[in-house]
Amino acid sequence: MKKVILILLFAFVGGQIFAQETTKKISPQFEYTPTEEYLTIPKRDKEAPKAEALKKSQFDYVPTTKNDETPADIKPQKLTKKAPQFEYTAPTKIVPRTITTEKPQSIVEWKKTTHNFGVIDYQKPVTGEFEFVNTGDVPIIIKEAKGSCGCTGTNFSKDAILPGETALITATYNAEDIGPFKKTVTVYTSADTTKEGTVLHITGEVIWKL
Fold first, then answer.
1. What's the rounded Cα separation, in Å, for the pair 196 and 140?
2. Measured CA angle at 193 (ends 189, 194), to 5 deg
3. Longest CA span, the chain
4. Are 193 and 106 within 8 A, CB to CB?
5. Rounded Cα–Cα distance for residues 199 and 186 (Å)
6. What's the whole-model pTM score?
7. Which residues pair with 168 in a beta bridge?
8. pLDDT tens for residues 8-39?
């Protein structure tokens, strides 16, 4: 057994010696010469304060905000609800409007409605005139002029009175009764809106002369 161990030991030692003798030094196929850029080691600025060295950045940053503000100076803005770009108006209910045309009006303007004869003689008839103007837009017709009694007669034109024209109605009192009197004449025209018409008044006094 010892012999076997010795044989193996000698064989191992001999193999190592043989390997050292056969190993050759391999020279590199090319030489690499580093450039000056990679050999230069930047030196630290010992004189610069530590605070200033910390402020120095590796690259220059130019802020693009308004008034050259840095991101640190920009205050957070409160988000507000933006107004819509257009306004929506809900459709309203369309109510048809009826266009009313004004009807032509018939208007009568009386210059007076009372006439005083004063003192008159017995059995001497007197006549008073009542004048009116058609101030409307259509012609006017005098339908009727009726005295309050048979002692008062009337007279008027049967023609149409055009707008702007003037018409006369006369009332004649026969003076058959002595003393004061008050009589009326009711006139009906196409301009009347009621059935009453327009009432004209005549007054005076009848005396007996010797």
1. 17
2. 95
3. 210
4. no
5. 4
6. 0.51
7. 131
8. 776 766 666 655 555 555 555 555 565 555 44
Residue with tokens 């009694």: 149
Are 129 and 120 a contacting pair, CB within 8 Å? no
What is d(CA 81, CA 98) in angstroms, rounded to the nearest whole number?
45
Range 38-44 average pLDDT: 52
Kindly report the backbone phi and psi dihedral angles of residue 204, in degrees, each rounded to the nearest multiple of 5, phi listed first. Answer: 165, -170
What angle is formed at CA 187 by the lines to CA 186 and CA 188, rounded to 5 degrees? 125
Cα–Cα distance measured from residue 116 to residue 18, given in angstroms and rounded to the nearest whole number: 175
3-state secondary structure of 51: helix
Alpha helix positions (H), 147-191 = none
Residues in the chain: 210
pLDDT tens per residue, range 73-105: 566 666 666 666 667 676 666 666 666 556 668
Domains and CATH numbers, the chain: 108-207 (2.60.40.10)
